Amino acid sequence: MMSPKRKGLIQQTEGAMMLISLFMALFLIATLYYILGVGDAVIYRRIMQDGADAGAHAASVMGAKGMNLHALLNVVMAITAGILLVIRSVEVLLEIVIGVLYGLTATLVLAPKALSLIAALSPVESSVEAAGDAVEQFVKVAHDALDAAHHAVQHGYPLLAQARAVDAMAFQEAFDPPVAGGFVVPLLGPRLPEGGRGLPVEKDDIGSLCDWAADGLGNRLNRVSSKVPRWLLKFLGGVVSKALRLGKRRTCVDGVVESPRRVIESRADGTTVWLGHEEFQYRSYDIGRSAHDGHWQYGEKGIRVAQGGQSKNDDGRDSAHGAHVVGRIGFAQSEYYFNGREDKSEWLWKQRWRARLRRFRISRAWIPSGILSACSSARGSVDGLAGLCDVARDFSINAVSAH
Q1: Which residues contact 319 (CB under 8 A, 6 or more apart)?
Q2: 267 DSSP β-pair partners
Q3: Is 251 exposed, middle or buried (0-12, 13-18, 19+ CB in 10 A)?
């Protein structure tokens, strides 16, 4: 038989709501901690991604500036060579005229006038030749300096891109904290066909420099605004271009002018290089500070408290906490490109290089050849493996967080 005291304790209902409210309060506190933790994690990842984007874009901006500077140096080389080209072309024309006049001296009727013209033109031809020799010495010095500038830009701007990317990621108040550091690849620019690394440019033929200068002067004459009929200006422009090419042999030779630069045509293995290829890509990787540092530690602790992780042995970290290192790495990709429809031969003659962000894609060159062979053999036979290969090759940061 149950005692009256025990029966009263079981039937007692006073204070039940207080007990339920206590559990509800604990639940709401845990939920609040969880929401704060998730919010901090989202902000952490958002700033990490913004930092990676900023680093990648900054590197590509420097790459585009380097390519535009190559174009500017090419134009300066063409202008200086064009001045010499004009003088040498006039010299060649005078030599041709004097030669024709010497031929006319064999005739009795035209010999007197031919001799008088030879006497008048010979000093002019000598003066033009002397002026051409003086200008040639200046062009040699100028082109040596411009060629050195090309070399410095090609190998120096990838270093500037690296420095600018690190500054954008790790030393800007907008991203630090939480970004602690970062870098971009390729570190020294893409691999060049002749060896070494740098911006994707190579030496062009010397003759292309004089051809560009001659055609440029002729095209400039075509675009002159005047009352002269357009067809006549076009004809004169063609005549000027042909006349300027007469001095090409004396101007565009080794030792007089240096070679301009062009975008690399192909890789060392012979594959053609085009816009969008690896040679014009930058990938940035930034590393964030530990979630234990700064105000993010409270959000992390809140998540652990909400999950009931308060073990003294593991400092309250559950198994999911081991993946927090992955969340401290940000990825982004960008490229620099020529913003125009001109032929590839014109890409380093016009300053139209720009930069933009791209979807993050793992470089095909970074994947071991054995995996690529397995992926190739798997296509059409094992759909699951083929799909896995596509994911590995075309991995996008969009699958990890909003981009």
Answers
A1: none
A2: none
A3: buried
